């Protein structure tokens, strides 16, 4: 197992390669309507953070997110890791317009911060005809 600094460097270097996306990955039978792009799958694998993907997928049912009209097409998710290894996860509908915020007591996530977009598509089908796709900003 590599240490946190090695994981951080590998992750930072690797994330720069993702521009656009070619494949969507269904990663969990618990969230069959939630898909990852090549970049977010790389993030989950290399950053060892499938917990983050699960958290964002599960929060799609949170009323403040599910019922917010500005979050129907795109959501802006941010994870900020603090020096004490706690973190803040939050969702915005626009810069500075936070809809949901949660403190995570401890994480070993290797980066200081990551931004992700969660988009909806009608490709395929889900309960209401939509899939959620988690993407890196560079893949948008």
Topology:
Blueprint: H1 4-15, E1 25-26, E2 34-36, H2 38-46, H3 50-58, H4 63-66, E3 74-81, E4 87-92, E5 98-104, E6 113-121, E7 131-135
Parallel strand pairs: 2-7
Antiparallel strand pairs: 1-2, 3-4, 3-6, 4-5, 6-7
Helix pairs in contact: 1-2
Features:
140 residues, alpha+beta, Nuclear Transport Factor 2, Chain: A, seven-stranded mixed sheet, 4 helices, 29% strand
How large is the share of residues in beta strands?
Answer: 25-35%
Structural class: alpha+beta
Number of helices, where a helix is a run of at least 4 consecutive DSSP H or I residues:
4
Shape: globular
What is the CATH topology descriptor? Nuclear Transport Factor 2, Chain: A
How large, in whole angstroms, is the Cα Rg?
Answer: 15 Å
Helix content: 10-25%
Secondary-structure element series? HEEHHHEEEEE
Write structural notes for this entry.
This is DUF6876 domain-containing protein. It holds the Pfam family DUF6876. Residues 10-140 form the DUF6876 domain. With 140 residues, the chain is an alpha+beta fold. It has a single domain (4-139), classed as enterococcus faecalis protein (Nuclear Transport Factor 2, Chain: A). It is built from four helices and seven strands; from the N terminus they run H-E-E-H-H-H-E-E-E-E-E. Strands 1-2-7-6-3-4-5 form a seven-stranded mixed sheet. Helix 1 packs antiparallel against helix 2 (38-46). The longest helix is centred in the N-terminal third of the chain and has 12 residues, at 4-15. The chain is globular and about 40 Å long. The protein starts with a helix and ends in a 5-residue tail after the last strand. The mean pLDDT is 90.
